[in-house]
Specification:
Blueprint: H1 3-8, H2 14-23, H3 27-36, E1 39-40, E2 55-56, E3 62-67, H4 76-88, E4 93-96, H5 103-113, E5 118-120, H6 122-132, H7 142-155, E6 159-162, H8 168-176, H9 186-198, H10 203-206, H11 208-218, E7 221-224, H12 239-257, E8 262-266, H13 272-285, E9 291-294, H14 306-320, E10 324-326, H15 339-360, H16 365-377, H17 381-387, H18 391-401, H19 417-425
Parallel strand pairs: 3-4, 3-10, 4-5, 5-6, 6-7, 7-8, 8-9, 9-10
Antiparallel strand pairs: 1-2
Amino acid sequence: MTQLERAMRGEITPQMQAVAQNEGVPAETIRERVESGFIVIPFNENHLNLKACGIGYGLSTKVNANLGTSPVFPEWKNEVEKMDVALEAGADAIMDLSTGGELKECRLEVLARCPVPVGTVPVYEAAVRTRLQGKPVVEMDPDLLFQVIEEHAAEGVDFVTVHCGVTRSIVEKMKKQPRLLGIVSRGGAMTAGWMLHQGRENPLYEQFDRLLDICKTHDVTLSLGDGLRPGCLADATDRAQVEELITLGELVLRARAAGVQVMVEGPGHVPYDQIEANVKLQKRLCYNAPFYVLGPLVTDVAAGYDHIAGAIGGTLAAVAGADFLCYVTPSEHLGLPTAADVRDGVIASRIAGHAADIVKGVPGAWARDLAMAEARRDLDWEKQMNLALDPKRARQVRADRNPDLQDVCSMCGEFCAIDLINKYLGNSCKCQ
C-alpha cells in the first residue's frame, strides 16, 4: 500500500514517524496531512537505504538538485560525483535528468548511493531509445514511454515528473496566442511536438489511469510537470500556463482518489510581483498539493548568476507557500553544470528556503538564527561555523582571511564593534 492509502486507514507509518521526528511535528499531524494530500513522502520501497523526507504544508522547505548526463558530456561517473557534492551541500532530493551515454547505469548508481528521494523524467529516456531506433522523437511509441516509467518505478525511483497537463487543446490554442519563447520545458516540447505530429492526444493525459496503476504499485509520487512553464518574464502567468495548471488540479484529485501521492510543479521565469499570486493560484487550483518550483527566476538577464536570481524568487515563493525548490545553478541557460556549480546552486536554494522557513514559523528555523546571533555576540567562532548553512565555506573563509585566528575578524580587527560593546556592556543585550 502507498503512504497515502495507509494514512487514509489511520496508520502512522515508520516513514511518517521519521518525518515527524525530523521536523519537530506530531506524527498524527503528519499522517493527517498525508491523508489530505498536503504532504507527500516520496518513498519507493525498492530504493534501498532511503531516508524518509516529507514535502509539504508546515514542513521545512526542501531543495532538489538536478544532475544527469548529456550527449555532449555522457560520462555518468561525473554525475554521481556531482550527486555527492549536492548531498554534502544539503540537498533533500536528487533528480537524474540524463540524456546521454549509459542512462540506466547512471540511474542505478545514483539509486544505490543516494539516501534521499530520487526523481526522474522518464520521457527523456523514452526519447533517447526512440532515437536509437532511428526515429525522431515525434514518432515515439506511447507504450515505450509507459514501459520506461514502469522500469524506473521497479528500480526504485521515488518520484517521476510527467507532463500530463500538456493537452492537445492547450497546444492548439497556443497557435493563436503565441509566446515569445514558446515551450522551454524539454518534456513539454517533446509532448507538444508528438501531439502536433501525430494529431493525437497526450498519452499521459489520455491514459492517466495506466500511469496511476504503475505509481500505485511501487508508491511512486507523481510530480505533475509544468510543461508550459514560462521561459521568460514576458510569458509568465499567461493563458497556457494557467490552463495547464487547471488541468493539473483535476489530475491531482484523480491521483488522490487512486491512492497515489502527488505534487505539482511550477514556474519558471516570473516577475517578482507575480510570484505570490502564482503560488496562491496553484494552491487554490490544485487543492493544496505540495508545490515544487524551479526558482522562480525574477529576471532573464542574470546569465552566469541565475542561482542568485532563482534564490531571490525562491524565497518569496516559499514564503507564499511553495514547499519544494528546484535549485538553479550559475550554468543555467549556458551549459551542463560543474560540481562547483551544483554546490553553489544547492546552497543558494537552501538560503532561500531557510529565509522563508523563518517567516513561516517552521520549527527550529528562528532558533537557529537566534543561536547564530548569540554566537556572534560571544565571538564564538566554532559555534558560528557549526550553525552556518555551509560550514565548509565558512571555515575556509575564516581561515583564509584571518591567518592569526584572533578573537575578532580581520575586517575590523581592534576596532571590532562587538568586542568593544562586550567590554563595556557585557552580555546585557539579550534577545527574548
